[in-house]
Every structure is written in C-alpha cells, then in structure tokens.
Amino acid sequence: MAKDPIIRKMFPGGITYQGFYSYYQYLAGGEKIRIYIIKGGPGVGKSTFMKKIAAEILKLGYELEYHCCSTDRNSLDGVYIPQLGIALLDGTAPHEVDPKYPGAVDEIINLGDYWDESKIIPYREDIIATRHKISRFFQGAYFALKDVKNALDEWDFYLEPYQNWQEINKFYLEISEVLRDSSGSGEGGERHLFAWGHTPQGKTQYIDSLIQGTNTLYLLKGQGGTGKATLLARLAEYSKILNLQREIYHNPLEPQKIDLLVLPALKLSLAISSPDYPYNPDFSGEIITLDFDQYLDSQNLKTLQENLVSCRQRIEDGYNRANAQTQQAKSLHDSLEGYYIEAMNFAGIEKKREEVLEEIISYIHL
After folding, report:
1. pTM for the full model?
2. What is the DSSP string of 114-162?
3. How far apart are the C-alpha atoms of 78 and 70, rounded to whole Å?
4. Coil/strand/helix, residue 41
5. For residue 10, which of 1, 18, 24, 2 has the smallest C-alpha distance?
6. With bands split at pLDDT 50, 70 and 90, how would you rate the model's confidence at 295?
7. How many CB atoms lie within 10 A of CB 245?
8. What CA–CA distance (Å, rounded) separates 297 from 214?
9. Could you give the C-alpha distances from 76 to 13, 48, 244, in angstroms and in order?
C-alpha cells in the first residue's frame, strides 16, 4: 500500500450543451464489494458524510477517488476506494441510483430519516418554487452552451480545409506503434467520466490528479477543428482492439468527444489542451507535445479572420452566460439548503456515519 495515498478527482456528470449528462454508472470501477447509496434532500449532509469517511480512510493509507459535483466543485457526488471495491454514492437527482444487489452489495442510507418533517412542511411552497427556479437556470445554461457548440462547429468548418491531414495521420501512426509495441496482454475494460466540469466556480479540471502513476504524457495542443479529438477517438478505439484497460474522460461541452485518455497498463496518458479548455500540466514524467496548429495553412486562413473573430466572440459570450446561469442556480440551491439544515438531526447522522466507517474498516480487516 502506498505511503502517500493517491487522491484522484473527476466528475461523473456534467453540464453540457445536451443538458445534464451522466456517466454515473462508471463512478465505481472494478469489482464492487460494498456500495452505499446515500439519499436525502439538499443540505442534509450527504457530501459531508462522504468527506468525513474519506478523510478517515486516507489516514489508513488507502487511495481514493473523489467524484466531484459539476453543480458545485466543492461538493462530492461520490467516493470510491479502489483497493477495497467500496463506494459511497449520492443517489439523489439528477444522478439517481437504485441498488442492483440490495443487501448483498448495495445499501441505501436515507438521511431523510434524520429530519423533522414538521419543520420543513411550512416552507413547502417556497421549496417547490425555488426548485423550479433552479431548474430554469440550469436550462438557461444548457441553451447558452448550445450557442457555444454552434459557434465551435462553425469554427471547425472554417479550419478543416486548411489542415494538413497527412501530417496529423503521422501522429496517429507514431502513437499507435507505441501502443502496439508496449501492450502485451491487456486486461480490457473501460470507464467513462469527465476530467473537466462547467461549475458555478468556473471551468474546472483535475487532469494532474488523474494521470498520477503514468510516466508519459502526450499533450495535444491546438485550436478546435485541427484533429485532436479525432486522434484521441481513434487511439481509444485502437487501445480497445489491443484489449488495453482504458480510462476515457470526455469533453464537458460535447460529451461524445474525448479530452483525456489514460492507459494504466502502459503508464501512458494523452490529454488535449485547447484555447477553450487550456491544460498546463504539472507532471513529473515525460511530456511529448504535439502541436496541431503548426500544420494549418495560416496564410490562407487570414481570409477567414473576420468569421473566426465572430465565432470567438460568440463562444466567449456563451460560456459567460452559461456560467452566470449556473451561479444563479447555485445561489438558489444554497438558500434551499437552509430549509433543511434547520430541520436536521446532525447528531443522528454523525452516529450513522461512525457505524458506516466501522463497517468499512471491518472489510479492511477481512
């Protein structure tokens, strides 16, 4: 077991141009020994419940995955202990989770059992109205991100004819050769998550935490439309053919696209850095930078400068509007928590947390 346990952070769901997009089914990877599904309203302490247990497990030297909430990067949607196959998940909307193996693997912890309903009912109309407003603000963010997606598609349309695709294909051939020569017998399997999130606190990424344990990072730099995401998609498919274990992290705007590919068996990762999602790695291993912009016909692209400036303005405006909407939703959500906090028996929740922690530690001993 590692003396300094690793903490990896990611987003299991995201605020995208398609609405809230969930890869929640991949939150707990590998074999599951025990999954605790935590239910309850806003402000009942689900995230704190998980954070406190995670802190105790860290003290014991176990690695952890923190699955962060895209609607508040300081909150957790889940905690996973890979070495134990134990997970704690927030099972409330929009990432509702039902137990697959009740009793045998899954256990529901309902923190709603610890509130005094008589203190909540008087605010029923306010709670319903506030939830409705929150939903509308998120819908506004999705509309704004649709505008971003349209502008980025137009940007790609302008750049595509001016890229030297033969040179980009050489990138693919070089890296695929590395994968083939290094692969050996793979374990197969893949997980899908987000490395980035459109949070109320702004665009947030945890790529450095996700590539811990790898020795080589390919950094794919360049504008949209230059072939970075296409290259990653092709390499992800090739790694599947080689039966390599794959961690696939998707773009927070377009969840079908890939931003980060991690191949644990090869200790190799590939990450995109673009003007809209810039990534400057803090990485101790070897970094191989591939510049996709260098093969653009920049001379002829000058004739499209006016169109590109228009696209850039619309992209920035869309992101700003989306962020403003999520901030409004977060503010209302904070006020919604107040109705529940006053009604909670936190001493009872703390006792339950201690029971769950004790149970997890018993699995360690086993």
Report:
1. 0.93
2. GB-GGGTGGGHHHHHHHHHHHHHHHHHHHHHHHHHHHHHHHHHHHHGGG
3. 12
4. coil
5. 24
6. very high
7. 18
8. 34
9. 11, 8, 29
